[in-house]
Amino acid sequence: MNPWDVVIIGGGILGTSVSYWIGNQYEGRVAVLEKEQDVAVHTSRRNTGVVHRPFYLDPVKRRIFARCSQAAYGMWKSYASEHGLPWEPVTTLEVATRPEDVKRVEKYYHWGLENGMGEDELEVLNAEEVRKLEPHVRGYGAIWSKTDTSVDYRAFTKSLRADAENEGIKFQTGIEVRSIKVTRDLLEILPTGNRSEPIQARFVINCAGGSSLRLAHMLGLGTEYCDLNFRGEYWEIGDEWTYLAKRNIYTVAQHPELPFLDPHWIVRADGRREIGPNAVPVAGPYTYRGFFRNPGEAIKKIFERPIANKIALLYNRDFLELAGQEWLSSISKSQMARRAQEFIPELKVEYLTKPGIAGVRAQVIDRRGNFIKEAIELHGPHSYHITNYNSPGATGSPAFAAWIVSGLDQNGHLTHLRRALAKKGPWDFQRITEQIDATAN
User: Fold this and answer.
1) DSSP code of 4?
2) Cβ-proximal residues to 242 (8 Å cutoff; 6+ apart), any chain
3) CA-based nearest residue to 370, from 226, 231, 261
4) Helix (H, G, I), strand (E, B) or coil at 98
5) Which residue, 149, 223, 248, 359, is the most exposed by fewest CB within 10 angstroms?
6) H or E element at residue 310
């Protein structure tokens, strides 16, 4: 069988977006390999379901992601309208629960404007104005992002898959990667299970989310990094208590350098309210219950190289203390309720009626035991790997995917593909990449 021109590993929202843009801009044999039987089974649907505006992203240190987030808002809005997908502009309050957080709220306002948001989209509120807008919410102040929107990212991904298939992309589901190796001028991918026939590719794009670093390690890339998995758990609020807040309620993170978000109140696109998440250390990227799927998985994760990164993390007292608190909020519903009472004092433990969505975040750490905030791009033999892509995540994916494809083109990695004739689609590739480039240099 002839080798594929491009193989994209991972059928989440990012991998599917990348596949769409390659199909829209080029002609060739392109496949997406997805370990599950459908797209968007894991992180792409197990998230808050919010299109976040970029007020919380530093316009200098995180300029690429801030501009991708800003561009993607308009992309998702028009896409939802054209395809009849849920689009609920519930808005978001990010509340200062400590007096010192008020300065952070004010900084967020200026960041939002620098990142392209309009003055009519943001407003800084004092404590009294917070109570007037949301009578059951308490804080020293807040920033009100008036265009944050609740959506169904899985529906977005499935629709985008159909668009990609119309552009000639082939999705091969139920294929998990066992190994990748270089064979002359190709990469050879060996699937797990009964299918032993290797898949050959002239170029591989690794968008495998929680498995992305493991796949990069197969080619000797990113070996200075390891990752840890943290499960974020939510509790659903009973219908009779949804009146406690009409909007998304976030709080300014106490430890932004660590992968622990203080619990927040989420309004889902279907109207459900949920409280969460915590950040419970677990053994694997798909451990949605318990702390490991089997003892072997836990042992393998502990001794996974490089071990030194994890040992260095043990010297971080803040991390160890917070990790203990996160474990406690996993086994105790009352502990989760208590944390949420800091901004919704009237919330009672019995209002948390059943477990909501749980998702797992793969967080990369370096040799000093520091958590890496930014996405990591790795270039290897006949391949490109994106790992640690956590924020802006699903929000920024269609714009960030365009940015990835543009960069691969500029670096000569897609010269074996033919340029497509002008094609119509929901978005303008050149305009989007120029919008990001205008502020990225």
Assistant:
1) B
2) 271, 272, 273
3) 226
4) coil
5) 223
6) helix 307-313
